[in-house]
Design goal:
206 residues, alpha/beta, 11 helices, 11% strand, elongated
């Protein structure tokens, strides 16, 4: 028996719908490229930031980081209140693609690794998410991709059966985990490739 095609779409947010670039924000504050590289690698590192996605409060993580790098205190303190400046704009073509899907009545959802504190001010600046029925935010749930539990939670929250939704993410490990937990997966590279896949699945016109 042929497997039915997905009828809903579940997006990642950062580097799929919007760009996320911590270095671009701090480049305006740290003119020396070598120091900038060091700061983004060793101070506001991906591992440090991931704690926010896991649900930790910026007040806690920043205090710990300042204790390790007291000379960088002023720059560290800016990270939370100016987080929206780490989002330079939309990924090219993606706002238009979301609007096309919404116009066709395709149910839209998202699963994002995102701080519960940073999410509300970010969300307020991006009305494109008005098209989304529901969004699972990792920091609110204290579950992060690629933990199978976040995908299972999403299926329940979204009211979807296994195989009913296409999941889109720029990180291969998140796509693999989604495919193992009830989703059809697409490893995102750009809007053109995604548009072709959506057309192949019948979610957009050929």
């Amino acid at each position: 028996m042929a497997r039915s095609l997905p009828t809903a779409v579940v997006f990642d947010v950062g580097n799929v719908i919007v760009e996320w670039d911590v270095r671009a924000f701090y480049a305006r504050l740290i003119p020396d490229p070598e120091r900038l590289d060091w700061f983004c690698r060793e101070v506001v590192s991906p591992a440090w930031h991931f704690q926010h996605d896991q649900g930790r409060a910026f007040a806690e993580t920043s205090a710990e980081l300042i204790a390790r790098f007291p000379a960088e205190a002023d720059l560290i303190r800016l990270y939370g209140p100016r987080f929206n400046e780490t989002v330079p704009g939309p990924v090219p073509g993606m706002v238009e693609l979301v609007e096309q899907l919404a116009a066709r009545g395709v149910p839209l959802f998202a699963i994002t690794n995102f701080s519960h504190e940073f999410w509300p001010p970010f969300r307020a600046q991006w009305p494109i998410f008005d098209h989304f029925t529901d969004i699972v935010v990792s920091g609110e749930e204290r579950l992060t991709k690629p933990d199978p539990a976040i995908y299972n939670l999403a299926l329940r929250r979204f009211g979807l059966e296994p195989g009913e939704a296409l999941f889109i993410d720029d990180r291969a490990e998140n796509v693999v985990a989604a495919e193992a937990n009830g989703f059809v997966g697409h490893h995102f590279a750009n809007a053109e490739g995604l548009s072709a896949e959506l057309a192949r699945l019948g979610l957009l016109p050929q």
